[in-house]
Write a structure and sequence with these properties.
Elements (H helix, E strand, L loop, with lengths): L1 H18 L3 H9 L3 H19 L5 E3 L1 H8 L3 H4 L3 H5 L3 E5 L8 E5 L5
Antiparallel strand pairs: 1-3, 2-3
């Protein structure tokens, strides 16, 4: 029973978060098809927010780290391309082998 209360509480928190999105963010979020894409959107948006707090214009997205956070394969994490196709993020720097993840900027207005 406690587990169900926690699950419903998380759903309410997620709804509150999504309701706080700008109209453009909500439109793009709703255009995503899978739960992994929705979760990826939330994670990448948090990366963008952290970069903004640090005064940075872009942020890294490491495919392996994103896959781990989403509990999916690295290939599945490559689905972050959907965020690029929807013009949610844009790549600012490519992946540098053994040195650094590709970097991206958030394109949507935030509240």
């Amino acid at each position: 029973m406690e587990h169900l209360r926690e699950f419903h509480g998380l759903g309410a928190m997620r709804k509150k978060l999504v309701d706080s999105f700008s109209a453009e963010e909500q439109q793009k979020f709703n255009a995503l098809r899978s739960e992994h894409q929705h979760e990826g959107f939330l994670i990448v948006r948090a990366f963008a927010g952290a970069a903004t707090l640090k005064g940075e214009n872009d942020f890294p997205i490491a495919q392996a780290s994103l896959a781990d956070r989403l509990s999916i394969t690295r290939g599945g994490a490559a689905d972050v391309r959907k965020l690029r196709e929807l013009k949610v993020i844009a790549q600012t720097q490519g992946y540098v082998r053994h040195k650094g993840a590709a970097r991206f900027s958030w394109l949507l207005p935030r509240h």
